[in-house]
Every structure is written in C-alpha cells, then in structure tokens.
C-alpha cells in the first residue's frame, strides 16, 4: 500500500489542504492519505488555535472522505514532534507499506534543517507541491539536498489559499467562507477562533 503523510499545523485546515488530498488520490499518488496535525510544529513557535480545536477542525473537514484517515499521534504526544519520529513509527507499524511524505515547495529551502533529513529520505518518498509561488524545480530539489530518486515533484497544481492569509482575514472578524470547508467555518464561528 502507498501510505502518504500530510502533516502540519492545520491552523486552520482550509480548501487548499483538501485540494492537495483530492489531487494525491486522483493522481494515484497514494492509496491512503494520513492527515497528521502537529501538537506544535518545530518550525513555528505559536499556533493561533489549540491542538484540540485544530484536531477537531481536521476531523470535521475530512470526515468520511474515502482514502483519507486523520491520525492524531502527534497531538497525542503532547509535545513538539518531528516528522522523522512519525515516519519511523509508521514504518514499524506497516512494514509492507511504501511511505510518502507530502510537503510544500516552500519547505525545500529549510529541509536540511529538519531533524534527520537523511533518515526521512530513507523512510519515505517525498511528494513536493507548489506553495506560495514556490515550484519544486530540479534546482530547488538539488539545493535542498534531496535524493532526486526519492522526490516526486508536482508541478501541475495551483491553489492560492494559505492558513496565514485565512488567519489574517479572520483576525478582522471576517469569515472567509470561500477558503474554508463549511463545517470548519461553522466551528470557527461557534468557538470564535482567530477573531480578536
């Protein structure tokens, strides 16, 4: 089985995340996609919503979606987790599966600073999506120190929504209904998340 991991803060989960999932499954890049919200990203010092709220939003956004499973292992750890830890656990749990890690191309420049980047590449193929105007070019992949044989660059994909822009809109008291799943809009409104 091709078991892919899409991790992140999901602060909040938005339609761009769903578009990546749809694309992964439509292009047969994964048989099962695990959505793994972080308790707190090691590369970010503040999350605007707490772990429990972010996990709930992810569960609402992906409920009953075929080929998708929400995995709460990083939130359950209750501490900063590293991608390599999650991949090692999955490799132990599913030794017959091929693992894939989904990242945005904006992460390429800092990939060498991740915990055990070489081990990550041993454990998983890396599927790289365009993000924030950054495209996974061969040069960017080389500069990141990635083994090109383990990288699957996705170039035919474009979705402009980002959690940063969504939070900025929400902070002005506006619900960006065109950028969020309806169930997430309802949850944010009910709990007054991100609105200062």
Alpha plus pi helix count: 8
Shape call: globular
Q: Helix fraction? A: 25-40%
Which blocks of ≥5 consecutive residues have pLDDT under 50? none
Secondary structure class reads alpha/beta
| Alpha carbon gyration radius | 16 Å
Strand neighbour order, sheet with most strands: 3-2-1-4-5-6
Task: Describe the protein's architecture and organization.
This protein has 196 residues and is of the alpha/beta class. Helix content is 37%, strand content 16%. A six-stranded parallel beta sheet has the order 3-2-1-4-5-6, sandwiched between helices. The longest helix has 12 residues. It is globular, with a radius of gyration of 16 Å. The model has no long low-confidence stretch (mean pLDDT 94).
Task: Please give a handful of descriptors for the protein shown.
alpha/beta, about 200 residues, 8 helices
Structure described in brief:
Helices cover about 35% and strands about 15% of the residues.
List the helices and strands and how they pair.
Layout: E1 2-8, H1 15-26, E2 32-37, H2 51-62, E3 68-70, H3 73-77, H4 83-93, E4 98-104, H5 117-123, E5 124-129, H6 138-143, E6 151-153, H7 163-171, H8 182-191
Parallel strand pairs: 1-2, 1-4, 2-3, 4-5, 5-6
Helix pairs in contact: 2-8, 4-5
């Amino acid at each position: 089985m091709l078991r892919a991991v899409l991790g992140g803060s999901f602060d909040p989960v938005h339609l761009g995340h769903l578009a990546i999932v749809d694309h992964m499954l439509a292009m047969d890049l994964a048989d099962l996609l695990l959505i793994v919200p972080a308790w707190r990203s090691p590369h970010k010092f503040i999350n605007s919503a707490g772990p429990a709220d972010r996990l709930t939003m992810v569960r609402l956004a992906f409920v009953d979606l075929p080929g998708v499973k929400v995995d709460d292992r990083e939130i359950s750890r209750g501490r900063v987790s590293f991608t390599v830890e999650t991949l090692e656990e999955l490799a132990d749990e599913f030794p017959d599966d091929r693992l894939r890690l989904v990242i945005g191309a904006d992460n390429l420049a800092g990939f060498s600073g991740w915990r055990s980047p070489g081990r990550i590449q041993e454990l998983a193929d890396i599927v790289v999506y365009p993000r924030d105007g950054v495209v996974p070019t061969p040069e960017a992949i080389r500069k990141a120190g990635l083994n090109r044989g383990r990288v699957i660059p996705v170039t035919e994909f474009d979705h402009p929504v980002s959690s940063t822009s969504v939070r900025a809109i929400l902070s002005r008291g506006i619900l960006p209904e065109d950028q969020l799943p309806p169930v997430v809009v309802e949850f944010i409104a009910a709990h007054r998340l991100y609105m200062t």
